[in-house]
User: Fold this.
Amino acid sequence: MNSLLYKAEKDLAKMGHELDRPADTKEWERRATQRKQLIDRYLWDSKRGLFFDYDFEAGTRSTYEYVTTLYPLWAGLATSEQAQAVWRNLKIFEQPGGLATSSVNSGDQWDYPYGWAPLQLLAVEGLRHYGNNSDADRIAAKSLSMVLKTFRREGTIREKYNVVTGSSDAVVVAGYQTNVTGFGWTNGVFLQLLHELPEKTVERLEDP
Assistant:
């Protein structure tokens, strides 16, 4: 949430500049700068090399590993050192079909072993934002290959995928249990990731 708000504040500052409204530009830049400082203070764990949520009532930082740790890279608020630390921890989430939502199998659809298209996109774009095209291409290719192979087998595009088995199999205990077909964000993300890949990588995706 704070990454999204930071991105919105930076976008509003840019709009203020383009509209020649310096007071608005200054105010939105001030808010974005303050939010970044608070994110560094409360959400960044330098020892673990990940961004976490913060329980403001208990006054403690969460230890729950979640793929949204890549959101600060997408928003452009991470330092280069923070970005590189997060890169080194990609192995926590990376699976044959892309990035799992978390490292915990709770039975919830927003946990391991499931992956969601918007999270793949923001993670890949976050990696690219800091010049890590190698990891970005690999993760994008994994996600695209999984969706493509599943489509060839089933003839459908799904809402979510099991990135561990590389399939649309979803046995959800908690939360919405249906895996909807023809889902818009998967279609959109597929095209975006595809267009960003080098041609030689795209050609390999077409192998049966």
Q: What stands out?
A: Helices lie at 2-18, 22-42, 71-75, 80-88, 117-129, 133-154, 184-196, 199-205. The mean pLDDT is 93. DSSP finds eight helices and eight strands in the chain.
